[in-house]
Structures are given as structure tokens and as C-alpha cells.
Amino acid sequence: MKKNRAYMVIIIPMLVLFFTFHTFSFLKGIFYSFTDWKGYGTWDFVGLTNYLKLWGDEAIGDAYKFTFKYAICATILVNIISLLLALALNAKIKCKNALKAIYFLPYMLSALIVSFVFNFIFSNVLPDLGQKMGIGFLSSNILGQENLAWIGILVVGVWQAVAFNTIIYMSGLQTVDTDIYEASSIDGAGRWTTFWKMTFPLIAPFFTINMVLCVKNFLMVFDQIIAMTNGGPGTSTQSISVLIYKQGFSGAQYAYQSANAVIFFIVIAVISLFQTRVLEKREA
Amino acid sequence: MLKNKKSSTILTIVLFALAAVTILFPLYITVVIALKTPEQIAQSVLAFPNKLHFENFLTAIEKTNFFVTFRNTLIITVVSVAGTIVTNSFMAFAITRNRGRKLYDFIYYFLISAMFIPFNIIMLPLVKQVSFFHMDNVPGLIILYIVMGLPMNIFLYSGYIKSIPTALDEAATIDGANTFQMFYKVIFPTLKPMNATVAILTFLWCWNDFTMPLVIISDQKNQTLQLAQYVFKGEFATDYSLAFASYLLALLPIVIFYLFAQKQVISGVTNGAVKA
């Protein structure tokens, strides 16, 4: 039992810290969601008022629409691009390691700074190119346009996420025995059939990993928006995380945004569980 | 499945061209803008500058308080990585070796289920919590990084520790080692691949994290590199030369690290994701 005492020397303080900052914060968020606290001053219990107000709130509705539109588009784009890239990088090519290293580089860089750089590209480089080459739609900054700004954020998000997903798909492709290609070409299967019927089912677990991680990360989109549009123009690129941050800290909506966070947590947890279930079933 | 040499060469060229346009072009912009004066930028955004203005870096260092923020970030990153590896691995070991006992099973599921709670969900109450304990500073951030990484790290480590035979623990104990000696001298070295994965993931997180410093740090002397870029952007919005010199300074350490350790980084990151 001496052993267990030694374990507790580390486990207890770590758990106390974890509980204090993670669990207790989470519970406190739930607690305040039933109050009318502004983040300062006094408060009262208001029951489910905050939750009921969420339903009709246009700002919340818009934030959900933007966040899901962004997450769905980004997830689809990232997975298509990374899968193609992984297939290409996995083929017999020269300088394989150098290419792999270059394509993985974006993963290393800070999302904030990458977004600043793309901000500059959208505001200065592309309009400059557009004017010189007479391409109309490039000549103004897309981040300044309410209906297009989200595409700018999409580009940055996808640019960075492709790196990680490609590497995962590549490690999936490496587990595929090359003999199956020979077998399927003897059987007269075309390239598309070979991929769809042979390769893809074999890398399905890696598809699951990528889908789950992508959706979860893109639903939390924050850094890119703070760096590029700060939710604007208007509130057209305000994601749920950005809304919680802006209104919760400086909009005197501490309790109300806590309720928003609780609902968003439930949404994310349900989606993650659902995805894992469905995708794992398809693998089997 | 390319059948001949020619098509493999073509694919190689296509991949390099694609990389140049998509990956390297934004980085080229970053370097070039950092080396130009505002007048040179006005003349041509894209052209390589006829005269390189390295003094942009000196001005940026001075104006962003680079040495202070760099030191803060370095301390946070190094101590968090070391602290994470040393404590989280031991904790995972203790939990894994005692699975099947109610208390340890409870701790395991308690921590793992926390993976479903993203940071942004708890940031509002967390900030109140942190300021209550006066942890809105460098040591505070270190503790948060070590603690907030627990769920993921326990998950990663415990999968790996399961494959290590308990005979190893027993042999060390019979030789008279106490629990700490047994773990750190015998078990810990065998966890090397997972230690590398956790170290790399923690390193990238601490160095590149923006959200946590943004909501927690208010005093300028506690700023991290990422937070400093954000604050600087707010103050010098239009001075692109200085802003980009500053961005480049913040990116450079990680790019240099990557140049030397890209193989380990890629395999470490893959290892972590595929295990998870």
C-alpha cells in the first residue's frame, strides 16, 4: 500500500488543480447561466429565463448559422484536399520527404499570425493583383464585404488544417498493403473503383479521426476571426466562440453568454458522440 | 500507382509548384514585407525589395517589447512541457496500473470525459477563477497549461502504458526501488515515444496559444509573444513593415525548430492523433 500513497502524492494535487480550474469553472458556468449576473455587481436567480431568451435571439441564431456553415464547408474542403494531397504524396514521387515537410509546415505556425498575414493578402496583395490584371472580383477586399468575409476566414482555416489531415491520411495509406492494387488491376478494376472499393474502406478509421477532429475544431473557430474581421463586417462572421467572448466579457452578458456556452457544449458533445458512433459503424 | 518515371516526375513538379503557390507564397510575403519600408510597399507589394531594411526588426523588437514577451513565452513553454511530461505521465501510470479499482476508474473517466469540454466553453468562469487566485501571470499560465492538458495526455499515455509489462515494475520493486524511483528510472524511459508526442503537442500549444493569454493576461509585463502581436496590431494597424517584422520574429523560433526536428515532429504528431 506504500505504492498507492506515492501515487496519491501526485494524483491528489493534480486533481485538486484540475477540479479548481476545469471542473469547477464548468459547474460555475452552469450555475451562473441560471442568474442575471452581468459579470460584476449583484445578481439574482432567474430560472430558465436566459435559456428561453436564447431561442428568439437573432445574434445567437446568426452565430449558429455562421459557425455551422463555416464548419461544414471547412470540414468538407479540408478532407477532400487532404485526401487528394495524401494520395499524391504517397505515390512514387521524388523528394517525398521535402514535399511532406513543406506541406506540414502550416501546422507549426500560430493561427493568429497566419491570419494576420492572410488579412494583408486579402486587403493589399489580391486587390493589387486584381487591379493590375483587370480581374474585377479581386480588386476589393473580400473581408470588407458582408456576404464574402466568411470565405476569407474559410481560406485561412482550410490552409492551416490541411497540413494535419494530410499527414493522418498519409499514415492511413501507408497501412494499405500495395498487393491489393496489383490484385485489383488484374481483376480489371479502374483507378476510381480501386480507390473507392479497396483503398477507402481500409483507411476509413483515419477518415473518422479526421472528420471528428475537424468538426470539433472548426466549430470552435476563434483566433482567425479575432485576427481578421473581429466578427464583422456587422456581425456577419461572428462565431459562437467569438460571441461568448465579446458579449460575455465586455457586453455585460456574463450570465446570458454562460447559458449560450452551456447549450453550445451540449451541441458539440452530441455531435462528437453521434459522429463517432455513425462513422465507426460504417467502418465495421 | 504510377507506372513510369515520366509521370512521377510530372507529379513531383506539380506538387512543388502547388506548394510554392499555396504554402510558400504567404511566407514569402511575410519575409518581403518585413524587409521593406512603407514606401517600398506602396511601390510594389510583391517585388523583392531592392534594398533590405533589417532595421525594421530592431524597431519591432523595441516597440513590441520583444525580449520580455519572448522570455515569458520561452519560460511558459519550457516549464509547461517539462511539468506536463513529469506529472502527467506519472499520473497516467498510477491510473493505468490500478484500472479495475473503483476510485481509479472514476478518476480515469472523470478526466477523459473532460475532453468534451472545449476551452471556449469554460473561458468566462475560468477567468474569474484565475483572477481570484491571482494567477493572471506567467506561473499561472504554466499551471493552467499543465492542468488543462491532463485529459488528452492521460488518454495518450494510458494507451501506451498498457503495453508495458508489469513485470518491469515488479523487478524494480524487488531491487529495492521505491515507487518514484521505479517509475522515473525504469518505466519513464520506456515511454520515450509517447513522451516525445506529448512534448511536441504541448510545445506547439503553449507557443502558439492565443486564446488563453488573451483572456487571462492583462498586465503588459506578463504578455506572451502571440498576445503581443495582437496588441501591437491594434496600436500600429497600418505600419505593415513593423508588424510583419514582429510576426516574423514570433514565427522564426518555431520554424527553426521545425527545420531541425521535422521528422520527429511529424511522427510525434501522427502518433498522437492515430492513437487517439
Automatic annotation (TrEMBL), chain A:
SUPFAM superfamilies xref list: MetI-like
Localization per Swiss-Prot or TrEMBL: Cell membrane
Lineage, uppermost ranks: Bacteria, Bacillati, Bacillota, Clostridia, Lachnospirales
Record has Transmembrane helix as a keyword: yes
Broad class of the protein's primary localization: membrane
Keywords: Cell membrane, Membrane, Transmembrane, Transmembrane helix, Transport
Assigned protein family: Belongs to the binding-protein-dependent transport system permease family.
Protein name stated in the entry: Sugar ABC transporter permease
TM annotation in the entry: 7-27, 68-89, 101-122, 148-170, 200-222, 254-274
Domain ABC transmembrane type-1: 64-275
Topological category with respect to the lipid bilayer: Multi-pass membrane protein
Pfam families attached to this UniProt entry: BPD_transp_1
TrEMBL record, chain B:
Subcellular location field: Cell membrane
Any Pfam family hit: BPD_transp_1
Gene3D superfamilies, per database record: MetI-like (1.10.3720.10)
Segments crossing the lipid bilayer: 12-35, 74-94, 106-126, 138-161, 182-205, 240-261
Main location: membrane
Keywords: Cell membrane, Membrane, Transmembrane, Transmembrane helix, Transport
Membrane topology according to the record: Multi-pass membrane protein
PROSITE patterns xref list: ABC_TM1
This protein's record includes keyword Cell membrane: yes
Domain called ABC transmembrane type-1: residue spans: 70-261
UniProt record similarity statement: Belongs to the binding-protein-dependent transport system permease family.
Protein name: Carbohydrate ABC transporter permease
